[in-house]
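Hi support team,

I'm opening this ticket because the web form for multi-chain structure prediction keeps timing out on my end. I have pasted the exact lines I submitted so you can reproduce it. The total is 512 residues across two entries, so I didn't expect it to be a heavy job. Is there a limit I'm missing, or should I split the entries? Thanks in advance, R.K.
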Amino acid sequence: MKRSPHNLQLDEAGRLLHFLTIDGLSREMLTEILDTTEGFTGVSERTVKKVPLCRGKVVANLFFETSTRTRTTFELAAKRLSADVLNLNISASATSKGETLLDTLRNLEAMHVDMFVVRHASSGTAHFIARHADPGVGVMNAGDGRHAHPTQAMLDMFTIRRHKGEFSGLRVAIVGDILHSRVARSQILALNTLGVSEVRVIAPRTLLPSDARSLGVHVYHDMEKGIRDVDVIIMLRLQRERMQGALLPSEHEYFRLYGLTEKRVAAADSEVIVMHPGPINRGVEMDTKVADGSKSVILQQVSYGIAVRMAVISMVIGSQNLTTQG
Amino acid sequence: MQVIQFMEADAVESLVDVMAGKLWSLLNAQDIKTPLMVGIRTGGVWVAEMLHAELGLTDPLGALDISFYRDDFTRIGMNPEVRPSDLPIPVDDRHIILVDDVLHTGRTIRAALNEIFDYGRPASVILATLVDRSGRELPIHPDVVGLRPSLDRDQHITLTGPDPLGLVIGKESNRSSRNPESEIEA
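Hello R.K., no limit was hit. The queue was backed up. Here is the completed structure from your submission:
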């Protein structure tokens, strides 16, 4: 198979062979994903919520880490494209019997799977699978360690574009555990590639990478200052296990300093939208009134997640078909 | 590709007038009072907009993007210029007038019919096309046609627009996989 020498996820003609990371993708490619997503948004509202695009294709969900939202929206997206879906609960099956990742992969390929959707606690797993997959088999990264969660980032970009129209001129604040967040990393790359005016990250020092500024963001430790006049607020989930790691004093203290309340939202732009990748810890990252309030677009994010995944699955399956023929 | 202007806007508009007249007679003959008009993106929608106005239809015009129903997806990949289909009115038990610019192989119409049926079960579908040209690969026949030009196999006729509309004829060139419109134009 002809691959781009620089980027595993692109072929020589710049088509998407895998979707592993936002890193290295052009603004044109991200825009193409968003435009294609636009085409799929209506499918969910029809009598028959399916299009025949990927009929006869098999998509295997390989989730080595638990997930409800991402796995079900990937499953629904593949089914709405008329693909057949295999859900493999890997942690409970082969690997616990000592089978290596590559053996699992080879066995599934022998079943003529066309795409792997991979989530794993280790960064780089989706890349590893993409490197070793047979020609014609596409790989989707559904979250790898602290590294990337590109479909989450793209559904966030789609939500922002739907509400704000353009990316230029926007100020976006990402609040919370930047250090451990693959979502934040992918969001920052996507926002900067799409050309927003400013990306701010708001977090305590313990939850920021030491080189945060090198990501192309402005760093704030003070929620009140950081949130001022922003057009988009993206809250990140606080993983409770971080408390035990002594990175944070307590949930109560975190909410006092960084929790999103109606009062804090009022300091942002009057048209601000509030986003969260889910699942929300109500009363930890966000007040319930904000989560359910008029600025919240959290449930729309979930709906758009299906359309975004339909777009990238169909783009990848389409280009994989082309490269194996060519 | 060599392209020559075949018809200017006013000539195209006269063709649409002819189509509107034929449609009017056909609807009367079949006793269809309130048809629902649906255009196929992109050129079919331009033609449908004019027909919709001329016939004074009250229900809003629908627009189909058949990218998700193409039979050549596995050969050409995803159309990067896909836009959402928009059928604002339920199609169940309605008489549909399906409008396209150029009827050629019939594959677009096959795709459009499949898509319409994923929205519901229409009472009937009438096919109206601005141009009906040779080269059919499927048993699909239009009910109303503006023009039947005589073309060679390697000639393409395309509706350009929307402002001004025009019909151009070109010779076949190297088909690019990134431009699916050149693969099938009807």
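A quick check on our side: The beta strands of chain A are 58-63, 84-89, 115-120, 138-144, 171-175, 198-202, 218-220, 232-235, 273-275. Let us know if the file doesn't open in your viewer.
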